[in-house]
Amino acid sequence: MKQTRPYARVxxxxxxxxxxxxxxxxxxxxxxxKTEGPLRDGDLTDVVTGKGRYLGTGFYNSRxxxxxxxxxxxxxxxxxxxxxxxxxxxxWDYRKAVMRPQDLTCCRVIFGEADSFPGLTxxxxxxxxxxxxxxxxxxxxxxxxxxxxxxxxxxxxxxxRAVYERNDVSLREREGLEENKGFFPGWEGDGTTATAIxxxxxxxxVDVENGQKTGFFLxxxxxxxxxxxxxxxxxxxxCFTHTGSFALNAVRGGAEQVxxxxxxxxxxxxxxxxxxxxxxxxxxxxxxANVFDWLPQLEAEGKRPFDFIILDPPAFTKSRRTVExxxxxxxxxxxxxMRLLPRGGYLATCSCxxxxxxxRFEAMLRSAAADAGVELRQIEARQQSPDHPILWNVPETRxxxxxxxxxx
Length: 408
Known about the structure:
Shape: globular
CATH class of the largest domain: Alpha Beta
CATH topology of the largest domain: Rossmann fold
Low-confidence stretches: none
Largest sheet: 7 strands, mixed
Number of domains: 3
């Protein structure tokens, strides 16, 4: 006898079925053929082919272009507390396997679809978890989920005292959600939103309330180490320095001199405060300037004061529509950096935009090198740290490109 499912059904088009069978967890609105049964936004629903074959179960939202976010492809799963605890333990065990023990106190604990928690991000900064909830299904269940995650971590001996929500992102509007931020009720800790972390032997202040994203960018952890290894004895320029993380790693690596530049005075002051925290303020120079203006100025003056330049800009594009404009921006700063570096100098360059693919980014670098009249000797091609895992069937999880070159 055929088992009766407790969920409504969403039938997808043949195109939608092929997309789902490829392993992608999103069902787009254009791929929905029909719905059957009572279905409210945020509810769990089964997704099936036109012939009724089961494809998975996920969160439904009529307001979103991502109509269903698949949570499971196992028809035997029951979405109770035990299910979510298993998922949290699996994610944490993965971090323990791929990260060093000292990295676990500041790492990404949950990376959305890559950890089978669609629309949920959780970063850890010491005893504070910072969450970002971008799907309605997760939003409706967070009162169950957040205590379960804290329980899993505490059972492993991790000291978790507070949970802070950073839902002040416009993406929530696409799910019909309001923006907000603040402590998760019952998990206020001592009420402070400022803390300090240590990564790669460098200490930073983290403001989980006002810092960008969740307070600090954890995905460049090991790329910063790669910069530190190359920095010894070099004159380093860190562009778009933000918290000063690459600049500080260069100092730690033994750079002869380090200049940290950002257009935001607030960012420059934050970088200076982090330098002071490490006792390195006297070994660094800080400059508030627009990199797009300052690099051409150095070139016009015929100055080549640096032999290692780091380019870590914010995402120049967050959609396919603006990717060509973004490519021009990336080329401009990379071209200027290549012209400023001496032969034998070093360049670290990256993009954090999913839409700027590896192929497109590398084509931009080849074009910039040709226009600058230099050749690039690749040292390393890197990605985000493994606590931000990449699922090959979900291209959106592959977003950070990081390259180290010598100019020859």
